[in-house]
Amino acid sequence: MSDESQGLVDRQKIWECLLRYTRGVDRLDRALTLAAFHPDAMIDQGAFRGGREAFADWVLGHHRDHQAVTQHTMTNFLCEIDGEFAHSETYVSYYGVNLTGKDSFAVGRYVDRLERRAGQWRIVDRVCVTEGATDFDKNAVVARFSPGPQSIARSTRNTSDPSYARPLAIQRD
Hints:
6 strands; six-stranded mixed β-sheet; Nuclear Transport Factor 2, Chain: A; 4 helices; alpha+beta; 29% helix
């Protein structure tokens, strides 16, 4: 494989690692959340600073106890790879439908150092840079956007969510 092709494969594997984290958090899937990080990873989330196990307990507990729905959306992605090491910066926006009171919206960036170990790209160090965050009153627009029977497939925050179905198969008439 050419160096250029390997670089594209590595970037894709790093992107998939980052997606494991956001999917894991939004689905409250501890194993998937942990799979984004090497065992010795350190995470600085502002309100939390520590290792991956304690971080998973903290972040999943917070989202489970305070939100009915969360969605982390990653966009701009810049990645610099140097052999078995990489640095990435990924823009993220977050929306949380809170169980009580106001809902939440935040934007920021994940700044990560990753390593490829035994062929697996995972995060070793992460700093979450918050650019802005707000809580806002629920209103008519938000009420319509809040969780409801908007489709036959219901979003769940566990492995019963349709995204885990293998194979995904829609019943045919």
